[in-house]
Design a protein that fits this description.
- The structure is a single chain.
- It contains 4 helices and 14 strands.
- It has helices at about 80-90, 145, 150-160, 165-170, and strands at about 1-10, 10-15, 20-25, 30-35, 35-40, 50, 60-65, 70-75, 95, 170-180, 180-190, 195-205, 220-225, 230-240.
- The protein has a 5-stranded mixed sheet with strand order 5-4-7-8-9. It has a 5-stranded antiparallel sheet with strand order 10-11-12-14-13.
- A hairpin with a 2-residue loop joins strand 10 and strand 11 (about 180-190).
- The longest helix is centred in the middle third of the chain and has 11 residues, at about 80-90.
- It is elongated, with a radius of gyration of 21 Å.
């Protein structure tokens, strides 16, 4: 299950499985930073997937060009001022520049990002591995749905329809997924029947006043039958199809 996707102009950060794993995609040889955790994307790689050092989405994250004892922000969230301040605190021995006062690139500095080539369809990640264009620059999807469209389409095509939920929630499509001994619902709620609005996951549980601890704050209980509101049903998580953020 995908928890959060943060899109930047030069790549993205993606957390999955309850923030247990993290995928970082940017061009080779770039340093990534997220709330005190950091690492390098190897010169021979186009992205990295690793156990997540963070329990939740970071307040600041981004990518930096590395040259000797100098770090230069390449792309970041929420803004360059906050990002640079966080990096300076984490690396007081380094000089953190802004993109406006960065020195000219020498032969050992990473190349500037290339302009993306026009394409009829944006490249998307497959099987958890970032997909990058031939020039090595990170493929930046337009939104969360585009980034994960192959996996989401596969879920909807390969699993049986959950007609009860399709009837309960007009303008939606739900399937029942069974994998690794776990059964859950996956669904998409559409706007005007064509534009994905929310990606949803449902976990079958009897009614209770409060959600399970692992879903607290992020879920809504939906009964199988609205005439029996305290009977059997599902705790449902809603994820914004554009940003990948969970909806409280």
């Amino acid at each position: 299950m995908i928890d959060t996707l943060l899109l930047l102009s030069d790549g993205y950060f993606k957390w999955e499985d309850g923030f247990r794993t993290m995928t970082v995609s940017c061009r080779p040889g770039v340093m990534w930073y997220a709330d005190g955790a950091s690492g390098m994307i190897p010169a021979s790689a186009k992205g990295v997937r690793l156990p997540s050092p963070l329990p939740c989405a970071p307040a600041v994250c981004g990518f930096l060009l590395v040259s000797d004892d100098t770090l230069t922000p390449l792309a970041c969230l929420p803004d360059e001022t906050a990002f640079s301040a966080a990096v300076r605190k984490a690396y007081p021995q380094k000089r953190v520049l802004t993109r406006t006062d960065a020195p000219p690139k020498d032969d050992h500095s990473p190349a500037p990002p290339a302009e993306p080539a026009a394409a009829s369809e944006p490249p998307v990640p497959k099987d958890g591995a970032p997909v990058l264009p031939e020039n090595g620059a990170a493929a930046v999807p337009e939104n969360f749905w585009d980034c994960n469209i192959e996996e989401l389409t596969r879920l909807l095509k390969e699993n049986p329809a959950e007609e009860g939920m399709n009837e309960l929630i007009p303008g939606s499509r739900w399937v029942r997924v069974s994998e690794k001994g776990v059964s859950y619902l996956a669904g998409v709620i559409y706007e005007d029947e064509t534009e994905p609005l929310y990606l949803c996951y449902g976990f079958e549980r009897p009614w209770s006043e409060t959600p399970p601890a692992d879903l607290e704050g992020y879920s809504q209980w939906i009964p199988r039958d609205f005439s029996s509101p305290h009977g059997e049903g599902y705790w449902v998580i809603y994820t914004d199809a554009k940003t990948g953020a969970r909806i409280r």
